[in-house]
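Q: I have 207 residues here and want to know how they pack in 3D. Can you give me a structure?
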Amino acid sequence: MSTTDTVVHIVDDEEAVRNSLAFLLSGAGFAVRVHESATEFLAVAPDINNGCLITDLRMPDMSGVELLRRLRDTDAMLPAIVITGHGDVQMAVEAMKNGAIDFIEKPFSDDVLIESIGRAASRAAERVQSGAMLEAVRQRVASLSERERQVLKGVVAGQPNKTIAFELGISPRTVEVYRAGLMGKMQAKSLPELVRMIMDVEIEATK
């Protein structure tokens, strides 16, 4: 997944600003979508799988800070950049606390904006790749038999084969066979890699 596959979503109530940013970023090779209000963007945000956001802090229907807060609360957060006017630094800091990865003060150069968008697009691409990897791990776990999952639970908990065997009422040798089988199905080259896979999936499930 490359940054050029990432769609940059521009949210600004001023048409001239939207058009100017869209022209600049399109010329720099980014795919662009424009939204004339925060409310309009919120309606489509949950369906965005690969994107980043650039938004003004001050808009009539909803501030950029409130937009970020709602995206975060609905688990639809994207790598976001906020554009601030002179004297809005305090608001920009608040935006960073609510998930923005960068803020740019007006007036700004084209190069500064493009560089910042590039970082946000990279972050978005990494999120997509990470999400795909987690989904692959979940599918591998789903492919395990009930007994293999029981052995996996013991392995991830750090239990030795003898303990797992005792709890499941099977022999240590049988545990070794199941363990080798699940390592293959999980495509894990080592025990630490297997444990990291499961931990990453469990951490994601708690978010």
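Q: Anything worth noting?
A: Residues 110-142 form the longest helix (33 residues). The domain at 3-129 is CATH 3.40.50.2300 (Rossmann fold).
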